[in-house]
């Protein structure tokens, strides 16, 4: 069964303009066309589009995604190179997750901080609490913020 660009866009939940852009950038060499040039997507193309979306979500650039697709289209002799590309992206995602986890911890601390301040009617209450008064799971974030604040004071 074949799908038009609009139908496939709905299936993968991205705008048809994005698929046209991908095609223009050379990311869709696997998509067949009719004699009049209309793109006709197959069910198997769905997996390709999911991989493109996955790589894009990792922060991989269009140029590198294109290279990955070209390598995949070249077949088995490029397995090692594709594996290396995927491993690099995986490491990048792990770093992003680590940074996001640190960000979430600070946000969790700030939620507690402002909830406590709101209940007390002032920010001086949570600001002046001892470390033991701060919930244990939030102490690391508080220390991180204090280190940054102390460093900034030294620089000014």
Query: What does the radius of gyration come to?
Result: 25 Å
Strand content: 5-15%
Element-by-element helix/strand order: EHHEEHHHHH
For the biggest β-sheet, the strand order reads 1-3-2
Number of H- or I-type helical stretches = 7
Helix content class = 55-70%
Number of separate strands: 3
Largest sheet: 3 strands, antiparallel
Gross morphology is elongated
Provide key terms for this protein:
3 strands; single chain; 3-stranded antiparallel β-sheet; 156 residues
Question: How do the helices and strands line up, and which of them pair or pack?
Answer:
Layout (H helix, E strand, L loop, with lengths): L1 E2 L1 H8 L3 H9 L7 E2 L5 E4 L2 H13 L4 H13 L4 H42 L3 H4 L11 H17 L1
Antiparallel strand pairs: 1-3, 2-3
Helix pairs in contact: 1-2, 5-7
Structure notes:
68% of the residues lie in helices and 5% in strands. It has 156 residues and is mainly α. Helix 1 (5-12) packs across helix 2 (16-24) and helix 5 (79-120) packs across helix 7 (139-155). The longest helix has 42 residues, at 79-120. The chain is elongated and about 75 Å long. The mean pLDDT is 93.
């Amino acid at each position: 069964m074949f799908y038009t660009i609009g139908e496939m866009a709905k299936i993968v939940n991205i705008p048809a303009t994005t698929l046209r852009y991908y095609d223009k950038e050379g990311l869709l060499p696997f998509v067949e066309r009719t004699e009049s040039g209309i793109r006709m997507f197959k069910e198997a193309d769905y997996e390709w589009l999911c991989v493109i979306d996955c790589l894009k979500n990792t922060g991989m650039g269009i140029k590198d995604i294109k290279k990955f697709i070209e390598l995949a289209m070249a077949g088995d002799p490029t397995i090692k190179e594709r594996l290396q590309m995927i491993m690099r992206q995986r490491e990048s995602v792990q770093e992003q997750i680590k940074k996001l986890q640190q960000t979430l911890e600070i946000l969790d601390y700030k939620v507690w901080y402002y909830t406590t301040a709101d209940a007390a009617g002032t920010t001086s209450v949570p600001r002046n609490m001892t470390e033991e008064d701060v919930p244990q799971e939030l102490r690391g974030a508080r220390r991180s913020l204090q280190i940054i604040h102390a460093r900034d004071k030294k620089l000014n």
